[in-house]
Amino acid sequence: MLDEIDLRIIELLMEDGRRPYTEMAKKLGLSESTVRKRVQALVEEGVIRRFTVEVEPSKLGLRTVAIVGVDVEPPRLLEVAQSLSQLREARWVATSTGDHMIMMEVWTRDGRALTRLISERIGGIEGVKRVCPAIILEKLKG
């Protein structure tokens, strides 16, 4: 069971995964070793799955970011989701309920590259019935 300190540590790490333990300890009024042990426990318990980096796609020359809904033949759902997960352009892929069976975020160089990705590579996967992209204009949070 997580307590308020654990939740605050998680919040601080979600703001900046590189935040030093000493800084977190100071903010929380704890020792550095206590924060270190709590973070390690959160990792071991699977609460924190991994530490990662957030990248600005445009700085990599990837100017088009889209959320893509994909509808598939139901028996092929997991097979198609796995195939989509292998695409270099896919940032994340999830099965879902609602309007589309699979949702994914993709980063491409431009609109033309997005069109090719959708029509040739995603649309060409056996079992895909429909692909519905929505280009992200501005990301406000996350």
List keywords for this structure.
38% helix; single chain; alpha+beta; Arc Repressor Mutant, subunit A; 2 domains; Alpha-Beta Plaits; four-stranded antiparallel beta sheet; 21% strand; 142 residues
Task: List strands and helices in order, with pairings.
Blueprint: H1 4-15, H2 21-28, H3 32-44, E1 64-72, H4 77-85, E2 90-95, E3 102-108, H5 111-122, E4 128-135
Antiparallel strand pairs: 1-3, 1-4, 2-3
Uncertain runs are: none
At CATH level 2, the architecture of the largest domain is 2-Layer Sandwich
Assembly state of the chains shown: single chain
- Proportion of residues in helical segments: 25-40%
Strand order of the largest sheet: 2-3-1-4
Concise description?
The chain has 142 residues and is of the alpha+beta class. The protein has helices at 4-15, 21-28, 32-44, 77-85, 111-122, and strands at 64-72, 90-95, 102-108, 128-135.
Describe the structure.
Helix content is 38%, strand content 21%. With 142 residues, the chain is α+β, with helices and mostly antiparallel strands. The protein has two domains: 4-44, Arc Repressor Mutant, subunit A; 57-135, Alpha-Beta Plaits (2-Layer Sandwich), CATH 3.30.70.920. A four-stranded antiparallel sheet has the order 2-3-1-4. Helix 2 crosses helix 3 (32-44). The two termini are 26 Å apart.
